Every structure is written in C-alpha cells, then in structure tokens.
From TrEMBL:
The lineage of its organism: Bacteria, Bacillati, Actinomycetota, Actinomycetes, Mycobacteriales. Residues 44-175 form the Nudix hydrolase domain. Pfam families: NUDIX. One of its GO terms (biological process) is nucleoside phosphate metabolic process. It comes from Corynebacterium glutamicum (strain ATCC 13032 / DSM 20300 / JCM 1318 / BCRC 11384 / CCUG 27702 / LMG 3730 / NBRC 12168 / NCIMB 10025 / NRRL B-2784 / 534). One of its GO terms (cellular component) is cytosol. This is NTP pyrophosphohydrolases including oxidative damage repair enzymes. InterPro entries: NUDIX_hydrolase-like_dom_sf, NUDIX_hydrolase_dom. Keywords: Hydrolase.
C-alpha cells in the first residue's frame, strides 16, 4: 500500500522542446505513484532577484510594460540571474543600479519564492536594501526598460496597493509584504549568505555546457 509523501518521482526520459534566449521548455517522463508513466512540461528559467530599496519611508518602484498581460505593471527593481555563475547579491546590486539608479550599503534577504511551481522552475530571491545612494543609471535603448517609469512610493501606500489591486506582480507583493513585516519588527530578515535552495540550475547548466557565457541569453 502506497504511503502518501514517500514516492520517488523518477525521471525516465527528458525531451527539450524549446530553447529561447530567456527560457527553455522540456518534457519529462516520470514514474507516478501507481506505477504508470506521466509526462510533465517544465518551463526552465534562470532564476531572478528583486529589491525592496527602502529610504526610511519610501520604496523604489518601477512601472514596466509586460507583453504577457498587455499592460504596464508596478514592480520592484528586478532582473534575471542570466550572467554565468553570478551570485544573487551581485545580481541584485546590478539590477538596483540599472533600474533605479541606486546603490545600498545594507543588504538582507526578505524572502524566496517559486513563482509558478505548477509548470515553471522560476525562483526569485527578494532583498531588502537600505543605506541608499543615488548613482547614474546606464542609458537603455530599444527594449521595454526604455519606457520604464521610476517612482518612490511610501511603504504603507505600497501595502495598500496590494489590497486595492493596483499591485499584482507576485514578486512585488511578496517583497512589499515581507518588507513591511521586517521594518515594523514583526519578522526578521535573513543574511545575504542564506542558501537559495530552489535557485534554478537546468537552463544555466545547459547554456554553460554549450559555452554560452558570460551572458547566457546570447544564443
């Protein structure tokens, strides 16, 4: 008799269905608890980082066009872990500078989340950044970031945006609510050295094996 929670979901075959600059799609065949074989499609992702940059009252937010929903969404400064072997903190520091024109002297980890575990391995680490200094943003031409809006939003207003439906990006929601709890003293952030257990590896390992480095998007 099968005891729930004890089955080993053994992969018997894997087929690569799609390879594009920022993702891959594969189909895995697995042995299910009853002994049958089932197929599951998995969207492979590089993983990402996001930053709640807090100046003592406000957080830095961006509004960016997202083709998947055909609208511009309020979000946190964020980006892919698409540079080979780049650690999460370095990636977050790069994205904060590129998207918000900020550097920070104090960093901690607010939360890690798996955005869509039903079909995608994307996992995101959200940082809290304090001790902010303005720096020059690099010029961006031609992509969605060229149309990006940057705005400081009081943290309590960002929390309200979650409940009013103005803030719908799941990464931003997780970061805003976690930051509110940490800053209010209801929770504690983690050190930046905390393991990022679910950081995706399949896509990055395949790109590196094919020599697609350091920018693993350059197919």
């Amino acid at each position: 008799m099968h005891i729930p929670g004890t089955h080993e979901f053994t992969v018997t075959d894997t087929e690569l269905l799609l390879e594009s600059p920022i993702l891959g799609v594969r189909r895995d065949s697995l042995i299910m608890p009853g002994g049958s074989t089932a197929r599951r499609e998995v969207v492979e992702h590089f993983g990402a980082v996001a930053v709640v940059a807090f100046d003592g009252e406000n957080i830095a937010m961006v509004k960016q066009y997202r083709r998947s929903v055909g609208d511009s969404l309020w979000e946190l400064p964020a980006g892919l872990l698409d540079i080979a072997d780049e650690d999460e903190l370095t990636g977050a520091q790069r994205e904060l500078m590129e998207e918000a024109g900020l550097e920070a002297s104090e960093w901690s980890v607010l939360t890690d989340l798996i955005t869509s575990p039903g079909f995608c391995d994307e996992a995101v680490r959200v940082f809290l950044a304090r001790g902010l200094t303005k720096v020059e943003r690099p010029k961006v031409m031609g992509d969605e970031e060229a149309d990006m809006i940057n705005q400081w939003v009081p943290l309590h207003e960002a929390v309200g945006m979650v409940f009013s439906g103005q803030l719908v990006n799941s990464i931003a929601i997780a970061g805003v609510m976690a930051a509110d709890a940490v800053i209010a003293g209801r929770a504690s952030a983690r050190a930046v050295t905390a393991p990022f257990t679910y950081r995706p590896t399949a896509l990055a390992q395949r790109r590196k094996a094919h020599g697609i480095v350091p920018d693993m998007k350059k197919l």
